[in-house]
User: Fold this.
Amino acid sequence: MIASLSTFGDCVTDGACLVNTGLSGLSVAMVLFLIASGLTLIFGVLRIVNFAHGTLYMLGAFAAYWVVSRMGGTDGNFWIALAVAPLVVAGIGGLVEVLLLRRIYGRPQYLQFLLTFGLILLAADVVRLTFGTEFKLISGPGPLSGSVSILGRPFPEYNLFLIGLAIAVAVGLWLMLQRTRLGRTIRAAASDREMTSALGVNVGLLFTVVFMLGAGLGGLGGALDAGRPVTIHPIMDVERVLQSFIVVVIGGLGSVGGALLGALIIAQVSAFGILLLPQFSAAFAFVIMAAVLLVRPWGLFGRPLEE
Amino acid sequence: MASSRLTGGAWGRALTWGPLPFLVVVALLVAAPVLVSDSNVFLLTGILIWAIFAISYNLLLGYTGVVSLGHAAFFGIGGYTVALILVKTGLPFVVAFVAAPLVAAGAALIMGALALRLAAIYFALFTLAVGQIVWSVANKWTDFTGGDNGLNVSAAAIPDLISSRVEFYFFTLVLALFAAAILYMVVNSPFGFTLRAIRENSNRVEFVGIPVRRYKLLAFVISGLFTGLAGSLLALHTNFVHPENLFWLRTAEVLLMVLLGGFHIFWGPALGAGVFLYLENQVRNNPYDQTLALTGLAIGGLAVVVAILFPLGIGGLLQLAGRMAGGVGGESGAQPPGPQPLALRWRTAIAAVRQRLGVRDKSSGGPTDSQG
Assistant:
C-alpha cells in the first residue's frame, strides 16, 4: 500500500511519467468513447439497455482477426481489417435488430436484460465453435508498431494513432448528428419518438440504422483494441462492457458528448488509480457510477427521462 | 366437458397451491435419495438452493415489479459470511449459518434504501454498480477473501449431522421448504397484496396513503435475507466460495430461471431453477462438450426464446394448456375456494401480462415507475 502510494506520488511529481500515464489513459479513453458512444446512441433512440454491447466489441476484434488471418499477416492488412470489421459487426447488429430486438420494444425492461444476456452467451459459444478456444493475437499494425519519444519516454505510435482516429470519429459523429438529415432524425427520435413517427419518419428503419451504427462503433472499438494488441477471446468483453456502462451512466444515458467526458474520466481514473490502489481501481469506477446515479441519475450531460 | 374441466383445474392447481400436487412433489423430494443416484442427489441439492434464490428474487420481480441487477451480491455475501466466519474465527457453525442471511439482509437494507429512490432503469443500473463493487472487493481483496482463488470451506467445519451428501440434501430440503413457506405467507399476506398493487400502479397506492418506498424496501430486505440463506447453503454445498457467484451475470441467470418457470406463479421460479440446472448439467456432461463449452448455446438460446416467445415461461404454457383443456366456461364459480382460484389467477395473469407487455409507456417501459 505504501509502495503504491509512493509510486503514485513519484509519477505525479515526475512530468514525463505524468504525461505518459495521461496519454496512455487518453488512448484508452478514446477506445472507450467509441464503444460507449454506440451504447449511448442505441439507448438514446431505441431505449434499449444493450448488455450485449460488449459482445459486439468482441465480435469486432474477431472480425479483425479473421480478416488479417485470411489475408496473411502482412502489415497493410490490419488497416483493411480495421475498415472491414465495423462493417461486419454493423451487419450482424442489423440482423439482431430486425430478427430479435424489434420484437421486444416497449416491453418490460427485464425482457431486454434477458434477451441481451442470452445473446452474450450465444455469441461467445458461436465464436468458440467458429474460431476454436485458444487465445488469438493480431501481429500488430506494422507501420505503427514503433514508439515515439515523449519527454524522453517511449510512447507507442499506435496509441497516438488511436487518439487521432477516435477524435476524427467523434468529430464525424458530431457533424453527422448536427448537420445531416439522418442526424436530425436521430436527435428528433431520441427526444420524442411518437412525434417523430407522426411526422412521417420510418421509425422502424431508423431504429435498424441506429442499432447498426451503434454496433459498428462497438465493433470498431474491438478492432482497434485488437491492434493494440490485446488477446482476443470470446469473453474479452467482460471488462470493457462494464466500463462502457459506467461511462454512459456518468455522461448521461443517450448523450454522446457525455460519453466522451465519461470516457475521459474513467480512463484517467483507472490509469492513475492503478498506480494508487492497484487492487481497487475497478471498484473505484463503480463507486463513481453509483455516486453519479444517486446525485444526478441522468448523468452529467443527460436529461431526465420523461416518465 | 366436466372431466376436461377437471383436467384444466388440475393442471392449474399443480402450479399453484393445490395441496395434493404439492404433497406429491414433497414426497418425491423426500424419497429422492432412494430413487436417484448419488450424483443426482447432489444436483437436486443445487436445484433446491437456486430455487430459494429464484423464489426470493421473484418476490421483487414478479410480486413487486422491481428489477434488481445486483442480487448476486447478496447471494455471494451469504456465502462469504458463512465461509469467512468458519475459516477465520473459532465461532460455532450455528453462529456462522445464522449470521449469513442476516448480513445479506443488512446489505440489502443499505442497497435498497439508496436504490429505491431511483426510477426503473436507474434503479437497475445502480444495483448493478453496487453489486459490482461488492464483486470487485471479493475478487481483489486477496488477503481477506482469497480473491480470485476463492475460499475453501473445509468439511471439518461443517457439523457431522449434515456432512454427508444425503444428510446435507435433507438439511437443504427442510430449509428450502421453510423459506418457501415464509415467502408464500408473505406474498399472500395483506403486505404481499399491497406489493402487487404497487406493481400494478404505484402512484395509486401512494395516493391511498401507503408508504410505497418503505414497502418496497421491506420486500427488498426479505428477498436479500433469503438470497443470503441460499448463498450460504451453496457455500456449504460446494465447500467453496468464489467471486464468480457475485458477478452480475449470476443475477441474469436467476432472472432467466424466474422467467423460464413463470414469474406470475409462486412455484414458477423453482420450476425454472430445476429446468435450468438440469439442462446445464446435461449439456455440460455430454461427451461433445469436453473441449467446447456448449452450455452458452443452450442457456443463451433458452434466454432468447423465453424473452421473445414465452415471457410467461413454462408455467404460462401449462396454464394455457389447462385453459384450453378446461374450455371457455372454466372460469365460472366452479373452482374450489383456495388462496387464488385458477380462473382468477389466469385472468389476473393475462390482464397483468397484457398490461405489462403491451406498449404501455413512451419512455423506459419498466414495470417500476416510482420517480423518487
